[in-house]
Amino acid sequence: MSEQNNSLLTKEEVAEYLNMTDRTILDWAQRGVIPAFKIAGSWRFRQNDIDKWIESQRTGPTSENSKNSSIQPKSFRSIEHEGEILNCVNAILKSMEDTDREVWVVANFSTEYGDDIAKEAIKRLSNQKILRQKTQKINGNDIVILERKR
User: Fold this and answer.
1) Is the dihedral of CA 122, 127, 128, 131 positive or negative?
2) Which CATH class is domain 79-148?
3) Where are the domains of the chain?
4) 39-67 residue pLDDT tens
5) Closest C-alpha among 36, 39, 30 to residue 14
6) Dihedral sign, CA of 110, 113, 114, 118?
7) Which one of 1, 58, 70, 98 has the minimum C-beta count within 10 Å?
């Protein structure tokens, strides 16, 4: 593999560089996971882009920052926070059971549980294909609503 950062690499060279299989590199390139481009039907990779991509995947501090004592670990959701999200999910589901309505106003849940909790609850229900979030004009105002998916 070339030492020059701007050199173009084949999928085999990238696989060797990352200690992975050619097939994984090809799959990642096709899905846009890793920075790549095609030239005459063959995938190519810039070493500089691969090195930047590797850095973007880092979960810990960089080697320059490891001496810095002010580094704080990334925050994580507490059990209480997760419980609030689940309570909001259950409240949304309960409101859907108790009525034949097809639409709910997001602000009702945001007011009760907070914006970040309601947003995460709605995201989970959207991912499960239970509801979808839309914006609707009511009396000239944009209102964010939840709509039951059928």
Assistant:
1) positive
2) mainly alpha
3) 8-58, 79-148
4) 999 999 999 999 998 888 887 666 665 55
5) 36
6) negative
7) 70
- Residue 136 parent element (H or E): strand 131-138
Contact 122, 106 (CB under 8 A): yes
Per-residue pLDDT averaged across 92-115, rounded? Answer: 82
Phi, psi of 24 (to 5 degrees): -65, -45
b/e code 100-111 from CB counts within 10 Å (16+ = b)? eeeebebeebbe
Q: Which residues contact 25 (CB under 8 A, 6 or more apart)?
A: 11, 14, 15, 18, 34, 43
DSSP string, 54-93: HHHT--S--TTGGG-TT--PPP---HHHHHHHHHHHHHHH
- Please tell me the distance from the alpha carbon of residue 118 to that of residue 110, in angstroms, as a whole number: 5
Residue whose pair of structure tokens reads 């990642």 in the numeric block? 28
Angle 78-33-71 from CA coordinates, rounded to 5°: 40
Query: What is the rounded distance in angstroms from the CA atom of residue 127 to the CA atom of residue 14?
Result: 34
The model carries a pTM of 0.46
**pLDDT above 50 (res 74):** no
